[in-house]
Amino acid sequence: MRISEAFHATLTEKKVPHVWHVDSGGHDWPVWRNDLYLFAQKLFPGTGSR
Predict the structure, then answer these.
(1) Fewest CB within 10 angstroms: 13, 19, 31, 50, which?
(2) Can you give 8-50 as a three-state secondary structure string?
(3) Could you tell me which of 37, 43, 10 has the C-alpha nearest to residue 23?
(4) Residue of 43, 44, 1 lying closest to 26 (CA atoms)
């Protein structure tokens, strides 16, 4: 996590737009499923359920 936090701090310092999201789980399927959903919303905005 330290490497990710340092990378986030560098991006923030250099004013690079980014999303910093920390989950309360590990590398297991429920966490991945949720994060993939959130990432897909960023990739394909406006294509959700109608």
Answers:
(1) 50
(2) HHHHHHCCCCCCCCCCCCCCCHHHHHHHHHHHHHHHCCCCCCC
(3) 37
(4) 1
Looking at the domain assignment, is residue 6 inside a domain?
A: yes
pLDDT tens per residue across span 19-48: 998 888 888 999 999 999 989 998 998 876
In a domain, 22, yes or no: yes
Q: What is the pTM of this model?
A: 0.64
Could you tell me if residue 50 is inside a domain? no
Q: Say if 34 falls within a structural domain.
A: yes
The amino acid sitting at 24 is: S
